[in-house]
Design goal:
about 30% helix; alpha/beta; 17 strands; 11 helices; single chain; six-stranded mixed sheet
């Protein structure tokens, strides 16, 4: 059974993300003293008194707003409330009880979920501030709990209350996250739309405003192809265009998402064509050693397509991303759903290729054939001698080659050996790492 869920909700800038980060023990949600920084639902897992549970951070609820982003933030918070077993209702002692708190409280009462009222920013030692007692007017069954999300005081009492309200039937089995897939790309490439299309629900805020997604957000999808955890990320901008610290944090989240993933989908706007920034973004996945699929989104918006259009795009992508010829290219449309479900089979394929293990005997058969067909290089009368090769790890497939002189093992010959491995075993969609050791090297160095 799924782990129980607690959602942190409240109006903007009351400290929800700071509390979330404190409770899960890592800085996952962006924290900034600016209302509206957290937009989508952010998930994390934590444990208290032996109970494991999922914690959801949400964007601040603006009860009455016509702003497109703020209204969708409210929708995301409502979805979190609907899916939660327990609701942590955050308020702010410094501002005291205000009308927006009362509006949020009315919305929470309609949910018929157990609600824990929490008064944040009670930072001083001793009795809480006088404004704390105003929050009894909220009228929930449970008395307000004074906490300081910044310092962590009061969080033990809060967690005791959360765990006590979880339904007895909620299990704690650690569900398999399946294949973790990071969706990375420039702003407005259609990353959130793609995940919404794949999951079949409006799981993420979607708008045509570049930079809408700021945090990395996990979405679990299970279907006939398997189980997947999709990590949506902030669109990555050039450094010169990162004008505030929130954008800076978002780029860090995208890099972190790629590190967390098994497979990276590099989203490119087909209507715009591949750009220098796309090259740099794809390099994040390549350098992290992740399996990669290059996804040309918005294929439906490309005008005047004919039988040669795909080949022309292929050539442009291969030229721009010459450092990753192993990555398959897919042409899709998140808007229409064109070929989107094919992504699942391709994800399975490149993931399995990244986890491929080859026996030492088979590797050395390939190595012997390769060196016989193309003799190892020489330098000033000294010839490279390759003794044997073995596989050290997977994801990415990593091979250690022992030789007489590492300096003689030129890059071009390494690339030749890599191509021989690919010709024999495939390794579609995954980079290959070669580690060159000369006789007498300490393998731990």
């Amino acid at each position: 059974m799924a782990k129980p869920i607690a959602a942190i909700v409240g109006r903007p800038n009351v400290g929800k993300s700071t509390l979330f980060n404190k409770l899960i023990g890592e800085r996952r949600s962006i924290v900034e003293d600016t209302p509206g920084v957290t937009r989508d639902r952010i998930y994390g897992e934590t444990e208290w008194c032996g109970r494991q549970f999922v914690l959801i951070d949400t964007g601040g609820i603006e009860p009455d707003t016509s702003d497109i982003i703020l209204s969708q933030m409210r929708t995301q918070a409502e979805i979190a409330i609907e899916s939660a077993d327990v609701i942590i209702f955050m308020t702010d002692s410094r501002s005291g009880l205000i009308s927006d708190d009362l509006e949020v409280a009315r919305m929470l009462r309609r949910s018929n979920k157990p609600v824990i009222p929490v008064v944040n920013k009670c930072d001083s030692v001793g009795n809480p501030p006088d404004t704390f007692y105003e929050f009894y007017e909220l009228g929930f069954d449970m008395d307000p709990i004074a906490v300081s999300s910044l310092h962590g005081t009061g969080t033990g009492d809060l967690l005791d209350a959360v765990v006590s309200l979880f339904p007895e039937a909620a299990g704690e089995e650690n569900d398999d996250a399946g294949i973790k897939v990071a969706v990375i790309g420039k702003p407005n490439a259609g990353k959130s739309s793609m995940i919404n299309r794949l999951s079949g629900e409006k799981r993420l805020i979607v708008s045509n405003i570049p930079g809408t997604t700021r945090d990395a957000v996990d979405t679990r999808i299970t279907n006939k192809y398997g189980t997947y955890t999709f990590i949506d990320t902030a669109g990555i901008r050039k450094n010169a265009k990162i004008k505030d610290s929130v954008e800076h944090y978002s780029v860090l989240r995208a890099h972190t998402a790629a590190e967390r993933a098994d497979v990276c989908l590099v989203m490119i706007d087909a209507a715009e064509g591949i750009t220098e920034q796309d090259e740099k973004i794809a390099g994040i996945a390549h350098e992290a050693g992740k399996a990669v699929i290059i996804v040309l989104n918005k294929w439906d918006s490309v005008q005047d397509k004919d039988s040669s259009t795909v080949k022309e795009f292929d050539n442009k992508v291969r030229t721009a991303l010459a450092y990753m010829p192993y990555a398959p290219i897919m042409y899709v449309s998140a808007l229409t759903g064109q070929r989107v479900t094919n992504l699942f089979e391709q994800i399975n394929l490149v993931y399995s290729q990244s986890m491929l293990r080859i026996s030492t005997g088979m590797l050395n058969d390939v190595l012997a054939d390769a060196t016989q067909r193309v003799q190892p290089p020489t330098d000033k009368g000294r010839r490279l001698k390759i003794f044997y090769m073995t596989q050290a790890s997977v994801a990415p497939p990593t091979f250690v080659i022992f030789c007489n002189d590492a300096e003689l093992f030129h890059f071009s010959y390494q690339r030749y050996i890599e191509n021989c491995l690919r010709d024999t075993f495939g390794f579609l969609g995954t980079p290959i790492k070669l580690v060159i050791r000369q006789r007498g090297d300490n393998p731990d160095n």
